[in-house]
Fold:
Amino acid sequence: MPAAPSSEVKFEIGHVLFIDIVGYSKLLITEQSAQLGTLKTIVRGTEQFRLAQAEGKLLRLPTGDGGALVFRTTLEAPVLCALEIVKELKKHPELQVRMGIHSGPVNEITDLDEQANIAGAGINIAQRVMDCGDAGHILLSRHVAEDLEQYPRWRPYLHDLGECEVKHGVRIGVVNFYADEIGNPKIPKQLQVIQKHRARMRWTAIFSALLLFIGVAAVFIILSKKSAKSISSVPEKSIAVLPFENRSPDPNNAYFADGIQDEILTRLSKIADLKVISRTSTQRLKSSPDDLPQIAQRLGVANVLEGSVQKSGDSVRVNVQLIKAATDAHLWAESFDRQLTDIFRIEREVAKAIADTLQAKLSGAEQSAIAVRPTENIEAHDLYLKGRYFVAKRTGDDLKRAIDYFNQAIAKDPNYALAYAGLADSYALLHDYASEPVAEVLPKARAAAEKALSIDSSLAEAHVALGLVLHEELNLKEAKLEYERAIALNPNYATAHYLLGFSILVPFGQFDQGIAEVKRAIQLDPVSVITNTNLGLCYLLARRYPEAIDQSGKTIELDPTFLSPRGILAGALLLSGDSTGAIREYEKLYEKGKASGDIGEQYIALLSLAHAYALHGEREKAMQFLGQARDLERQAGGVYAYQNAWPYVALGDKNAAIDWLERSYQAKEAPIVAIKIDPNLDSLRGDPRFEKLANQIIPPDSPDHR
Structure:
């Protein structure tokens, strides 16, 4: 029998008792099995368990090292059950148990094996309350304690502990439930740390407040205003779709969980009234500490979507929950049990529910965009997801695997536009990540992108892929149109904003507009190292050197191992007149290149040192470093000819500099598009040979602010 439609799933209030064996993971397997068996026997033998089960008002959730009982009878049921368990545990001193109790919304679901499961905030908070305790503790949420206070019999058992920090950095009020021989009267270790810290700080804080009242008050007002401004600057209609957990028995199904997350994110990103964070940034936070407020703050969003995917045969279960990050409040949650053929329907329903919950306005075109079925062939879709999974890895071998999967998907469905778009992306990236010749990969990328658009002209991904090809061909005007079309179709497409700003508008000399587009890309993809790095380069090309230095410093903090922002920092120092500081940075880059054995990095650093020493007035040293660079030239693969022009410009050898620039143009290197704005080339301007070359690359009738 098919699962009931998700719209029929109802939450109800459950009274939850969460139980956990302390130190379970440290036990031998035989000890784990024995202790868990004993605990199950004790729990099932309690009167409250038997009564609720007989009435059909008990739900059970095993957790490996314990479990949860959800009573749909009375508020007192989990408390009475806990007392019965404590009484029996006295006969088993080897069994160390802690318990947590909370009342809240839950709903009963069934997994793919038709086993009972439970979801909802009631379960989550009960577990977090329990997690605050140690062995022997029976902890209650403050909400439950306040309800129990209405019963005189329970008042002597209730001992307020204050707040405990739990998952996602949220603090919840907890109450210790104990009497003479019931529970654990000791303050839990987590709260002891907090209370000791508060005790140490209390007198210092009071004394400081008395001495510095006026100053502190003033600072408080300033910081409050700043904080209020920071909070208010985060749009309420903003969301990050965090990586979905793969709950399939087969770990190789990770590609499927990633794919469903990506497709839901893509549907949401087509809604102009929402701010949706790029998958690049959410993936970088995949292994970050589980702290939703911190993650949301870093990504600049008010809401996050968490989820899990369980794929088994032809069936799939998708669990999702929309959370308001600041309060950890669950705004919406659903569990979908469907056939794989219904996966696009699930994605559509999730996107629609989120839009409704966040009160986002949808145009008719946007409603159609989030409801699209890209293929009717479920095998083709599965192959496509595998392709996207390997594209994201960004290595030459993985891109070739992606191409193979996309071709298999196309063989299953020759009209699968997204598969052609993925194929175009893969071929366009092969030059950078696998050193494949441009002349071989670009025609294939163009053909795939054009085929995708011939099938579906509304694919933003295909427009960007075609834009990349046009840019590589130095057809900037047409590339600009493709990026603009992609943004119109998908306003949250960070890559399109970045490429439009960095590779088109800035080279055209439209610095303010270009930098604004790159900043928009960073809003949508805040932890992208590449985008943050090249914002610094945009500032440098716009001759805004202090901002270039500041932005490069921020990017270095974001990823200290990435060397490109250090090169931009050095370049900005050099152009702002600090040749000594620039030389120091370039020397560091050279040493890093030597330490890693990367000839390319050493080569670039030597060219840069030659450039810096020439501007510093030390021609002999500049020639020395340039000679060392020439010695490494044959070994240094993948270095742009464009970068070779700078030291010759600084040394006054215009012909040699222009020779290198012409070589760069013939190779259609990406940096050559900066020829009209690069401050490093200023002394070449006015030279007839240089101007002819520059006009070939950026024609005089191109949009230009100057």
